[in-house]
Amino acid sequence: MAENPAAGGRPGARPGGRAPSKLVDGSARAVDERFGTNGFVRKAMRKAFPDQWTFLLGEIAMYSFVVILLTGVYLTLFFKPSMHEVIYNGSYTKLQGVKMSEAYASTLEISFDVRGGLLVRQMHHWSTLIFMAAILIHMLRNFFTGAFRKPRELNWLIGILMFILVMLNGLFGYSLPDDLLSGTGLRILEGVLAAIPLVGTYAVMFVFGGEYPGTDIIPRLYIVHVLLIPGILAALIPLHAIVLTWRQTHTQFPGKGSSNTTVRGYPFFPVFIAKTTAFFLWVIGVTALLAAFFQINPVWLFGPYDPGAISSGSQPDWYMGWLEGALRTMPGWEINAWGHTVTMSVVVPALVVPGLLFTGLAVYPFLERWVTGDHEIHHLLDRPRDVPARTGIGVAGVVFFGMLWLAGGNDVLAERFHISLFATTWFFRFAIILGPIIGYIVAYRICVGLQRRDLGVAAHGLETGVIRMSPDGKFSEVERPMTDEAIAAITDPRPAVAVPLDVPPPIEGVESPRARSSVKRVRAALNRRFRADLVAVPERHPDEDGNGHAITEGESESVSRR
User: Global pTM?
Assistant: First the structure.
């Protein structure tokens, strides 16, 4: 590298600027010689990040995970994962003299005797709920916009795996205090394991270390909760959020300056760094405010777990409510065969329904590719209205999840609205079947209506509400043409979502080989249904830019070409 006299003759100095110190320069050179980081850092600093609010959902999840780790480390210093029975003699007078496990006693100690313990404990709980909500909404955003398509199938599968792991880890952490509410959840877990055909009783013995409740379940859940699953998540989250995203570049919505080959946005440094740092502080601040002013999981009100105690109105955390609802709505069916009893009222809602749901989510990208015949690389997202079939499927899934979630509180609904518990149960039995169908139809029609509105806006402009009378006495509304920036999301070209896979008609009475296969006929029928109301991109006005994504000189955004 040539020397720069203006910078004191030190290599690496900028013209007219101050040369870096020997320590910084030497450290950077040493790291680059061993890891080759300089090229990556230079490229990373120039990377463009689209400025769209939905991209913040993934960041909320990532920063909530950081809060979970920090608060979890603090709680491990005081929590005792033991089921050994002690007599409580702590600060909470209403439970003094009560026999309980060391796990529950240490949770009370954290809540009442450790400085800042209750705040940190509630921050840990609230951040878990926010983490789960952010992951779920982030997954829905990726589904409705088609962000799971090639080349991001692996990222989608990693997201599904993380959602399952976080849900399980939340259940395990929720059970650690060994209070009456969490103990009831463990009892349900024991019942689900025992209902597994053939191996159920062995699974219960293995997990609980003997007959329920045993003395080993809390220590075992503790190791899984603080070590195993967080370790897996600590590996998956950087892979999902940083490595693959950096390699594949960011997706973006249609609009002026956005295409399948360019990314319009702000540079990683300094704009994105400043924004994401402030957002991290906001996540911490909101979590702390929730923990300080909104009580959650007051275990001292529930008391220690007692297998003989019965309570009503108990609800799990929201992310487990849908499983609770599935258990409550399933009829009490059993199958007796060859001396064995299969409890369908437990197996179906607790094993079959989650299995079908998560398997369906995992295989959907590949199923949609099979139906659409689309094998192109997609960096440009779809607006949900542009693909009515996919949007309808997503809404049907949301309605199904929502009905199960509401069914998890059927006893509370019955008590609040003074209706029969059996009436609520039967209502949800029909709603979880009819609700998704109605949701699909309504969402599909809304998407088609929004498409037609977009076509009208592109052709005629926006309605102004101003009525003008022509010399011949006719009245017409004044319409204002949309700007290029506003109309680009409607008129700019984009990759095809699906290609025609119709079965060829018979030629001289001879069927095509494709028509003889029932699988190919089904594929062709699904393909026609998927393509039925895909968005039709209107032509741009003659006076507009032909490509629709040029960026004028002087704009602050940066553009990355793939």
Answer: 0.85
